[in-house]
Amino acid sequence: MVRTRVGGTAPVRVLNPEHAHWPPLWKQLTDPPPAVNAQGQSACLGLPAVAIVGTRRATLRGMAFARALAAALAVRGWCVVSGLALGIDAAAHRGALEAGGATVAVMGTGLGRIYPAVHADLRRQIEQQGCVLTEFATDVGPRRHHFPRRNRLIAGLVRGVVVVEAPARSGALLTAQMALDVDREVFAVPGPVDLETSRGCHHLLREGAHLVENAEDVVQVLGAPGKEGGGGVAPGVRGPAAGSAARWILDRLDFDGVPRNRLRSRFQGSEEMWCEGLLALEIAGLIRRLPGDRLARTIWRV
Question: pTM for this one?
Answer without folding.
Answer: 0.78
